[in-house]
Amino acid sequence: MSRIVAGVAGGLTLASVPGDNTRPTTDRVKEALFSRLESYDVIAGARVLDLFAGSGALGVETASRGAATVDLVEAADKAATVCRRNADLVNQKLGRKTATVHRMKAERFLDDLPAGQHWDLVLMDPPYPLGEDALSGVLGSLSAYLADGAVVVVERSSRSPEPAWPEGLERFAVKKYGETQLWFAEPVMEPSAPGE
Q1: What secondary structure does DSSP assign to 5-65, as a single string?
Q2: Comparing 24-33, 110-119, 128-137, 145-154, which segment has the lowest mean pLDDT?
Q3: Domain boundaries, given as residue ranges, for the chain
Q4: Which helix (H) or strand (E) element contains residue 146?
Q5: Which numeric CATH code is attached to 2-18+26-187?
Q6: pLDDT in tens, 82-139
């Protein structure tokens, strides 16, 4: 059983995805993650993107804590249905539509985005079987849609290698919690060539 940890909807019980195909973030990892994100001051008023959202627990937590908008992207039918249910619960509790569910693959979602779309916080908890090349491709597509000062969090198995960060995105922190590793990255400006 998962729940919203803090904020306006704190304590609200969330629906879980049935079956073995999703791997929910443990409460311990979720609490540590959000403590760190609040210390970075990147949640309140943020435009948030939750890729590979599963039940949507991470994204709706940001909505409860004051995010302005939350886009939850999930391709699997069962997970997307649960994600929509959890988004509706949080939107109802907040009294406004903050969280929106997009039932599609992360790659297609990023390919279909209009120019000018930007996020302040991106949460990525891809399935462990997702290959490193596929993850690198998603990060590469994502980097064009990050606001200045954005934070990207990638949750992976602690046995997985560090993600291959694309040009313009750089790791600034990593934290391990048992079998889970959180990688934190931010957009960086490439240095200009002399004379530019």
Answers
A1: -SSTTTT-EE----SSS--PPPHHHHHHHHHHHHHTT-STT-EEEEET-TT-HHHHHHHHT
A2: 24-33
A3: 2-18+26-187
A4: strand 146-157
A5: 3.40.50.150
A6: 999 999 999 999 999 999 999 999 999 999 898 888 999 999 999 878 889 999 999 9
